[in-house]
Amino acid sequence: MSSAKQPSLFESEPALPEGCKYRAELISAEEERHLLGQIEKLPFKDFEFQGFVGKRRVVSFGWRYDFKDRELQKAEDIPPFLLPLRDQAAKFANLKPDDFGHILVTEYGPGAAIGWHKDKAMFDQVVGLSLLASCRFRFRRQRDDGKWDRAEFIAQPRSAYLLSGPSRTQWEHSIPPVEHLRYSITLRSFMEKQLTRAKRLRPIPHEYARDDVVVGLPWQSPGSARA
Ligand SMILES: O=C(O)CCC(=O)C(=O)O
């Protein structure tokens, strides 16, 4: 499906936020199997942020955001098996493959979730691919009257979503606990100035790096922050 909106059963169901695009079956079942075969071998690390260990495990490539030093740092090069996917994601997002200088692979074991957050301001466009199992992908944005606009879609295995424009910068997103093992591959482009600045910094070698942050669990009360 190339539209930004999934079929709506109810008139009142909100459309997806502006700048969000969903594409079912971005990759084939065979491509998914191949990716999973390679992903299994990755040295995932428990997601950890300020002493909290989540049920997610992550690996970063290209660049990573260091939450302690609050800056981009060089990570292991993007491995060859992810390059064809990067090409497909770039086409989907109308970008060049090289624009995606950062790729995060996340493993969600049953019960794992990601809390409400926006991606860090240094990132620009975001493409997320889902593998193996589906999840609810939820959006929220607080209105001036304090109430929340909400939207969501089901991210099916092999599908991709794009977050750009307001869906990326104004809306927070979260994924409630998944029932079955799910992997996601998140490709992020950079705001130009941020990457230029990061490149001036001395690259810190990382075999594979931890990344990401939970900002309040999805079932907790609203707290706004950037992840
Ligand atoms: O797993 C996903 O599709 C979402 C990942 C995400 O929101 C993040 O890593 O910031």
Features:
disordered C terminus, four-stranded antiparallel sheet, Jelly Rolls, 4 helices, alpha+beta, 227 residues, disordered N terminus, seven-stranded antiparallel sheet, binds 2-oxoglutaric acid
Describe this structure in words.
This protein is α+β, with helices and mostly antiparallel strands. The chain has one domain: Jelly Rolls, CATH 2.60.120.590. Helix content is 16%, strand content 35%. The protein is built from four helices and 13 strands. The strands form three sheets. Strands 1-11-8-13-6-3-2 form a seven-stranded antiparallel sheet. It has a four-stranded antiparallel sheet with strand order 7-12-9-10. A hairpin with a 4-residue loop joins β4 and β5. The longest helix has 11 residues. It is globular and about 50 Å long. The protein starts with 19 loop residues before the first strand and ends in a 27-residue tail after the last helix. The N terminus and C terminus are likely disordered. The structure holds 2-oxoglutaric acid. 2-oxoglutaric acid binds next to β6, β12 and β13.
